[in-house]
Amino acid sequence: MDPFDFTGRHVFVAGGTSGINLGIAEAFAARGARTTVISRSPERVAAAVTTLQAHGAKALGFSADVRDPTAVNTALSGAHQQFGEIDILISGAAGNFPAPALGMSLNGFKAVIEIDLIGTFNVLRGAHAFLRKPGASIINISAPQSVHATPLQVHVCAAKAGLDMLTRVLCLEWGADGIRVNSIIPGGISDTEGMARLAPTPEAKETFRSVVPLGRFGTKQDVANLALFLASPLASYISGAVIPVDGGRTANGDPGLGRVLAAARQ
Ligand code: NAP
Ligand code: COA
């Protein structure tokens, strides 16, 4: 049996209408999954459904803000009614902008915490009733900021570190239901909104790339490949894991000192 054949499986992707998360949704759709995506913009939702259907998949979309548990629950229940129990749940809605702690309002800090962390709590808690038990696989989309303290990213660092702890705690609480919960940490991924916001110039991109041990940015497919693996039967004993797909970047804990030591040997 092909472990990457997801025919008949139901994949629900929160924040799945653009970028990395849409790439993940497309990877599952291309392998036969019935795919549901949600995000705020009705136009983006409609465009994503068309994109997913172009893979020959059955696809559904709902406009919902993950900060609104009622809207999230309506989408989850609608998806469940039409596509049945959710086999694979991806939580990837997120917001980011670079700003120092003293340069962002409380509302700016809260916006990111409410989308990335509380939004994921809303999605996961709301989904529990609709998940296949046993067998469901939950994948939260984290970021290197969950591991690396990063200036101008206090909101994202706090939100994504919290998200990874949510992964670990729900792995404990929901393991008895046969539900696996894992996080993926994408590195810098080309052609994404996140990259455009954090490294908007060629110079910034080059500095960013230079701390990646494999020497290149990732692709949406790189991230989707890990999601496919985590959702597959090959990963049936993996839960509570926080896994980077980043060319080694999160292992590169102190690139500044690394450069000093390398320069000293020349
Ligand atoms: P993106 O293209 O901006 O995608 C974000 C998605 O989330 C969109 O579909 C957006 O659609 C949706 N969204 C945003 N706020 C929402 C809300 N309040 N409620 C519901 N949906 C919401 O971003 P990306 O760069 O591909 O990043 C995707 C994920 O990967 C994020 O979790 C990010 O933290 C993570 N990540 C990205 C990178 C990178 O290099 N790009 C690196 C590490 C981690 P609407 O606007 O329609 O709501
Ligand atoms: N610097 C400082 N503060 C900023 C900011 C910036 N660049 N961008 C937004 N903010 C503040 C706003 O001023 C506002 O605070 P205020 O009410 O005190 O003025 C607060 O953040 C919320 O902004 P708003 O635009 O009302 O929020 P929103 O809910 O519509 O959007 C964001 C949320 C801010 C995260 C928005 O950037 C977004 O929707 N991002 C989604 C896409 C994304 O970020 N993709 C990359 C994922 S890695």
Structure, explained:
With 266 residues, the protein is an alpha/beta fold. The chain has a single domain, classed as NAD(P)-binding Rossmann-like Domain (Rossmann fold, 3-Layer(aba) Sandwich). 45% of the residues lie in helices and 14% in strands. The chain is built from 9 helices and 7 strands; from the N terminus they run βαβαβαβαβαβαααβα. α1 links the parallel β1 and β2. α1 packs parallel to α2, α1 (19-30) crosses α8 (220-231) and α4 packs parallel to α5. The longest helix has 22 residues, at 106-127.
Please specify the SSE layout and strand pairing.
Elements: E1 10-14, H1 19-30, E2 34-39, H2 42-53, E3 59-63, H3 69-83, E4 88-91, H4 106-127, E5 137-141, H5 154-174, E6 180-186, H6 193-198, H7 202-210, H8 220-231, E7 242-245, H9 255-264
Parallel strand pairs: 1-2, 1-4, 2-3, 4-5, 5-6, 6-7
Helix pairs in contact: 1-2, 1-8, 3-4, 4-5
Order of helices and strands: EHEHEHEHEHEHHHEH
Mean pLDDT: 97
Strand content: 5-15%
Shape: globular
